[in-house]
Write a structure and sequence with these properties.
This protein is about 35% helix and about 20% strand. It has helices at about 10-20, 30-35, 55-65, 90-100, 115-125, 145-150, 165-175, 210-215, 235-245, and strands at about 5, 25-30, 45-50, 80-85, 85-90, 105-110, 130-135, 160, 180, 200-205, 220. The radius of gyration is 20 Å and the shape is elongated.
């Protein structure tokens, strides 16, 4: 079932229902879940199936099988079937950068763990990031578990997939976007650029930012530890990087 998302998690479902860019197919939920979580949510244009808890699991299992995903029990007593949001080409990103609009861009280099990916999407939405960029190969994928953990973050941040991340970073620099990579060996001072578009780059926990991307970065900075541990989970490091570059 290409082009279809199975969305689970209360916050993720509500965010999808409120997103005018989402084309909703069907909502399955129990009477209890509808009364408890969706009171006040406009469902006039949604095909709503109010069923019992057993039917929720059976219907979800049917969709999981169609999508060739491993079934996991639905704990929130509801799930949503919707058309996938568009995955943008880099040309859309470049056009937006050329327009002179101040952009917040976040690049993930070889981050494949779905827990980290979902947490980063959620945090990116919190900080008003416009685009999240990752390579077509070596990413975490958008599974039902991802949607649950992202808590609706993907409804607010445009996803761009590119074939060559280092080339994308280089092209963004040519368009006047400051590219800032966070890595342990970074020695540059974090720039203060309130009037310039910025692109933060984070790498996987085990390998960091790839050499190809590292070579083309304009700024290479590090998060200085204040205690005895010198490493962070990439989703936590991403949150700190976002706060430093786009302070709330």
């Amino acid at each position: 079932m290409e082009g279809i998302d199975l969305i689970i998690g209360v916050h993720s479902i509500i965010a999808a229902l409120k997103n005018p860019e989402r084309v909703i197919k069907e909502l399955y939920l129990t009477k209890k879940a509808k009364e408890e979580f969706l009171n006040g949510v406009n469902l006039s244009n949604v095909k709503v199936n109010v069923v019992d808890q057993h039917r929720i699991q059976e219907e979800a299992k049917r969709f999981y099988i169609k999508m060739q995903k491993e079934f996991k029990r639905i704990s929130s007593e509801m799930f949503l079937i919707a058309e996938s949001l568009p995955i943008y080409d880099v040309s859309t990103l470049y056009k937006d950068a050329e327009s002179g609009k101040l952009l917040k861009i976040f690049c993930l280099d070889q981050v494949t763990d779905v827990h980290n990916g979902a947490a980063i999407f959620r945090t990116a939405a919190f900080y008003g990031v416009d685009y999240l960029v990752m390579a077509q190969k070596g990413n975490f994928g958008l599974s039902p578990s991802f949607f649950k953990m992202a808590s609706g973050g993907c409804e607010y941040v445009k996803l761009v997939q590119c074939t060559n991340l280092s080339k994308t970073v280089t092209n963004l620099q040519k368009l006047g976007v400051a590219t800032i990579g966070f890595l342990e060996s970074g020695e540059d001072v974090l720039p203060n650029l309130p009037n310039q578009s910025q692109c933060i780059v984070m790498g996987a926990e085990d390998r960091g930012i790839s050499h190809a991307v590292r070579r083309v970065l304009e700024f290479k900075v590090s998060l200085k530890p204040q205690g005895k541990l010198s490493t962070l989970n990439v989703s936590v490091a991403s949150a700190i990087a976002l706060e430093k570059c786009f302070p709330s």
